[in-house]
Design goal:
Elements lengths: L2 H9 L2 E6 L5 H16 L3 E6 L16 E3 L2 H4 L7 E5 L20 E5 L11 E3 L6 H11 L6 H14 L10 H12 L4 H9 L4 H12 L2 E3 L4 E6 L1 H7 L21 E9 L2 E8 L5 H7 L3 E2 L3 E6 L3 H16 L3
Parallel strand pairs: 1-2, 1-4, 2-3, 4-5, 5-6, 8-9
Antiparallel strand pairs: 7-8, 9-10, 10-12, 11-12
Helix pairs in contact: 2-4, 2-5, 4-5, 4-6, 5-6, 5-7
Amino acid sequence: MFEDVLSFFDRHQSFIVTTHDSPDADAVGSELVMASILKKTGKDFKIINGDPIPASLGFIENTSILEKWDNEKHSALLENSAMLILDTSEEFHIGSMRKVINKVRETFVFDHHEPKPRSRLSGFIDPTAASTAEMAVALACQLGIDLDSQTAAAAYAAIVSDSGFFSYPKTNIRTFKAAMRTLEWGANPNQIYKELVENSSSAALLLQKQALLNLEFHADRKIAVLTLRRNDFESTGADYEDADHIVNIPLKSKEIEVSLLLKEKSAGEVRCSLRSKGKVNVSKIAQEFGGGGHVTAAGFKCSYSMEETIKKLTAVIEDRLNGV
């Protein structure tokens, strides 16, 4: 199954492992699993990302090997290294690591998102997988590699995060097999659930309250739109990452088909998260705005105003709901 991946490993001795900007649990978990695989197959590697990991993933104990790109410190590695890009196939999404793509020996993608048409990055992409970590665990199993308990915990956190605790459409028997393997290696489901779900601040609750106060409906209540502006973060004292799961709340209503969360991160930048119950492929819509993701979960960032983004997005989604 992983012949192309193994061939890529065979072609090189030294690797730079990276992932998308604003790394999430799947990005970090798959990086750590791949690091274990590379180490146990005798390869040299560095995990280098454009962004640091969020504070919410600080419970993953072995993240000390994750580094943030430093031109002075890391430039010397490029000439003799290949780059393994995890959890995205879009160079636009790897932030400052884009500038080194043409300086390494080879790039290779290992990902589970729907590939964007005409992307110049290639590798092993399986859109049927529920997470990239699921794929990485399967690779470790194929190679007969056991993960230590810390890496297994990171992998389990990645799997449950990207599968919605085994509820999203891509969840399948492979997802459960990968999760079960991490338990055999020592992952603790209850502890990981507490860290991922029951570890937010009171400021995060206030931010959720503010987002719901801003809630609007479109298309006969089939589309929910949540907005958070910079002053919402400032007034609540919440961090940007505290907004991550708010977009899922409207989908609890049986009327809502698509939920949108627009966040004003900085002057001139709006980030949008899209969630769907399946009738609308939000990955295709996100791609139209320069982003990507899954059929039911996707995102993008743009320079439109909040109002213009909402107008453009809801018009496209209405067309999809009407079969246009």
